[in-house]
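Worked Example 4.2. Consider the chain below.
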Amino acid sequence: MDLFVAALQSRSYQEWQGMIGESEMMEKSGPSGVTYQIEWQAFWDAQAGGAIRVLVSVDDGSLARSIVPLTTSFLVSPGA
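Applying the procedure from the previous section yields the following structure tokens:
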């Protein structure tokens, strides 16, 4: 998950700004062969024009992860 999140973090503020209110999902195979469903969405953290919070969740298809996926988030500042 860390490598995927790092790739998302490399996107510019302008790219994320264009994705506000949208969510994207993809499936990706891990080194063990397990297929992961990865979903992310961007939204204003406090106010429009400020920092953007990106929420990332990962589900490996197991019952436990489908109920409670692994999640992380990060902030993208306007100056980034």
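The chain is about 20% helix and 40% strand. Residues 2-76 form a domain with the Pantoate--beta-alanine Ligase; Chain: A,domain 2 fold (CATH 3.30.1300). Compare this with Example 4.1 before moving on.
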